[in-house]
Amino acid sequence: MTYRTIRQRLLLGAGSTVIMSLLLAAAANSQASATRFDPAPRLASNTHDASAPAHPEVTHVHFWEELMLEPQDAWSKLRESFHWRGQSLPAEAQARIDEWIDHYRSSPENVAEITERASPWLAWITQQISERNLPGELALIPFVESSFDPNARSHRGAAGLWQFMPGTGDALGLVRNGNYDGRLDVVTSTNAALDYLEMQADQWYEGDLQLSLAAYNAGAGTVNKAKQHAESQGLQGNYWNLSLPQETMHYLPKLLAIATIIDDPERYNVSLPDIHTEPAFAKVKLEHSVTLSEASTLLQVDKSALADLNPGLLNGALNPSSAQTLLVPEDVDHGVLAELSNGTDERQSVASADIPDTYRVESGDSLSVIASRYNLSAQELMRLNEIERPEALQAGQLLTLSGR
């Protein structure tokens, strides 16, 4: 079973083998994890009295009235998307999760602090995961990885909400230079992380996302060896039967523990911040450079608020050669947004010329740089040009930039 849509298969299929080889090499140098706090799926779903009254139509009206009265926020939307609640696990596996539940519930103020930090991002990340039909628990990976701090950096070199190592980020096409770091860009890195998890699940684990999560932390090579060893002992090669590095042994239990708490915060004496169901930011695509100071003045928004939403802009300015999307608070005046983007529509504003059909590679170019310049992904550029070895790109080579 696989969660990838047909569109995503077409997008990633052609270059997945090469990308996975790059990722395996990058993962050998790290277990890209930088955090101290983690999430987990909840087990209690919202239910109502199932006793049936005498008249079915009365039950029907009562049911819809119940739904209308039930408040909706980002947390309830997240809970609705949980896939792993109530899964049947061996006692030893459940004990590993319960150990982390006890750990988190012992300091509910820490959970509250991290979930508060998640406020700008949670609704949007949940939305992206839902659109891919992935388990909602994955939206809590940043709880485990970075305590939902987009600027988090580990001593090993991992960075961002999803804690990508430099080599892994490069292999996934995350642009990284003196002005911009795609690993810190929440929108770009979230899409890369979900692509990575889906790609590994399909490439190695027949769609098993729990094994892909282990590989996200320890590297696919480490997980594959542990899986082969477990199967040689007559065990099923699932996550719970594998002997892995200690950090990876804790990785999924942490995620499931925090999801359990999020699923029923009152039970665990945890207070969650109010987060609206809609994303807290709007995306403005630009073809011209702009500093955060200039945008702050035009939008009448604090520069610090823009900086918080755009941590990937290392020097406080957007340069279209590295990044084309500026995040702004969602309540910014639409007319001003249009002015910022040279008069185009506010949320989909793209002040750019039509993308040419072809591009001739210049000395010093890389796939990620070219892809970013024309608002493509490196994977899509590889697919369009049937490229299997991105490192073999040569000056003078003619690349197709569209499927036309």
From TrEMBL:
InterPro entries: LysM, LysM_dom_sf, Lysozyme-like_dom_sf, Transglyc_AS, Transglycosylase_SLT_dom_1. It comes from the Bacteria. Keywords: Signal. GO terms for biological process: peptidoglycan metabolic process. Residues 1-27 form the signal peptide. One of its GO terms (cellular component) is membrane. One of its GO terms (molecular function) is peptidoglycan lytic transglycosylase activity. Belongs to the transglycosylase Slt family. This is Membrane-bound lytic murein transglycosylase D. The lineage of its organism: Bacteria, Pseudomonadati, Pseudomonadota, Gammaproteobacteria, Oceanospirillales.
